[in-house]
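sorry for the late reply, my laptop died twice this morning and i had to redo everyting from scratch. anyway the thing you sent over, i finally got around to it. pasting the sequence first so we're on the same page, its 413 residues, then the predicted structure underneath. double check i copied it right bc i was rushing
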Amino acid sequence: MLHCSLLNQLGKLLGVLSASAGASVITSTLSAIDAASVAYTTPQEALPFATQFKTSVTFVPKLAFFFTSFQFFKFIKISCAYCPAGTLLGSPNAIVSAFVTSLKEAVPQSTIMMISGNHDSAPRIDCFRQVLLKQNLYMVGNPPEKEEDHIERITLNDTYGPVHFYLLPFVKPSMVKNIIGTNDGRNYSYSETIKKLIEREEMNTKDRNVLISHQFYLPVNKKAEDIERTDSEIRTAGNIDEVSGEVLLPFDYAALGHIHKPMKVGSDVYRYCGTPLPYSMSEAGQDKGIIEIEMKEKGVVETQVLPLKPLHDLRIIEGELKDVLSQSCDDFVRVVLTDKQDLNIFEMQEKLKNAFPRLLEIRRENIRKNNYQAVVKKDVKMDPFSLCTDFLNGVDEEEKDLLQDIINHVKGV
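ok and here's the structure:
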């Protein structure tokens, strides 16, 4: 089956790459995989647990290249379109080349669509844009820049008619103010900016329309602080980059990248697929997968998640040392020790490393801490005799007389 081939191909890709923050593959009944986003992070953030996949070889953790959403569109013909909608070139060009080549090998007749994310150099991605069109590869770095520019639109056809894919790279209000204007000299908000960009398009709502975008979209009537985020994501102060999910309403489906956890933006047809593998401890226990979307006639969209299971999971194991050691495994593990008594650090580390070959971190829950709440007495100026008796504590009268004689002798009294 086509999606099995793609899963295998993804496994091979993960054998070359290092984790994931957004890619969708669009295949067209028309079979299309829509890729929602590819994000970059630093090598320090590239946790070594992103190492092996069921259908793959071994990861190269030093390569900081990540996908975050892999969604798979299914139509009625046998043609495909892959649409990564995230950070693409945070890693060496050879990695991007391997990614694209592998997708083409999986489905040779595919059309590939890519957009940049918030970590990308948009001009760099646009560099060979016109040349790549001949290979059915649409690589979009910059959003519209001039008055005559519009969101890149790619149209594929199947039995039910055309499907229009709108490729909108990561946008900041300052990038497009020459097109949408300003609000009394001030930039519009992120939400207003995306809304105005979409409103400029002459969209035929009788056809099927798909948005590929890399932004922080919020479900209607939700607050940014209500959305669970992972530690591997970059957040803005005050969540100024939030975009209302209302702007997605003209589309039949929105494949979104930027959020690393699977998330729906108020509907099954507007969603973040999340990363194929976890790359922060906050993602331990998360279910990862590819979303398969079947688009039929206008208004009929069905989705299902194709689960991705790593060879080595990410786990947090908590308890006393003896109990933790009894749970020995080959997964990537953070150990949280709750022992109240002191432990021999070197012996404890050696035992844990033997029990967990892929140990990532050791934490102590009940380690003794300094008491910074203790009340400190104020300094009081005391004469030598009082100072000595207070220090010696509990001297008798004979000792006091002796002490006084010594002090007098020293003073020369």
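The first helix runs from residue 2 to 16.
thats about all i looked at so far, will dig more tmrw
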